[in-house]
Input
Amino acid sequence: MKGAYRMPINIPKSLPAIEHLKREKIFVMDDERAATQDIRPLNIAILNLMPEKEKTELQLLRLLGNTPLQVNITFLHTASYASKNTSPSHLAHFYKTFEEVKTDRFDGLIITGAPIEHLQFEDVAYWHELQEIMAWSKHYVTSTMHICWGAQAALYYHFGIQKYELPRKCSGVFEHTLTDPTIKLVRGFNDYFIAPHSRYTDVSLEELQAHPELHVLAISNEAGAFMIKSKDGKQIMLTGHLEYDADTLAEEYARDIAKGMKIDMPKHYFPNDDPTQQPLNMWRAHTHLLFSNWLNYYVYQQTPYNWVE
Output
């Protein structure tokens, strides 16, 4: 296997995120060079439901590009809802719709969050399409990682667990406790670690713990259940945002203040609880470890070399 000591993410040569990744010394390979390598790369699809898609692209590519595996990335967007914050030319150039890939098989899939928690799932414009994608993923994807609202949508669709509205937004950086450090997804994690959350809804920890198909891996006294997996490893649910940059919560807080919203300052986030001070990223190591564990144990070591019907 050529170059197996260190493999990059393979993304389109003109994707804007590529220059940011190169400056951060993330090993990036464009699609032209990847075509010359004699290896079996992992094929990962990212259903990007976030409004500012380019920011989310960079956050996720940074993590997927930091493992010894070569990863081909396919970005997906919804056909049933047109993004208002990303240019049509960016979507046309770098994204596909589910209709274009539904006969393909993927080693992994990431379904991001979306700022639509105030809606019931059935009232979301693309809920029918998302149900199709989640149904397809059970047979065409080795393992799927769901983030924040995406995690709540997966818990509802796959396991019948409904979300509920919180009295105040859960926003900040919270301490979490591992429930079972022997699980491969959290291999190498500290017994206590921190992670950002940013959401208005939650799911019942009691329902999660009582469900025979689910395993709760990390819990916060303030933010509730954080990391949940199906016992077969095909569904990974993260109710928070380990992928966030250091300043993402600050940007969200400033945005909400500018809108005139009555919003609490993110907890345990700004140094000395002073919004004028620059927050530090204290969760980066566990973020990289989580994505590395997922790609290694739940995707690479589980997926077949050649997909067959």
Summary: The chain has ten helices and twelve strands.
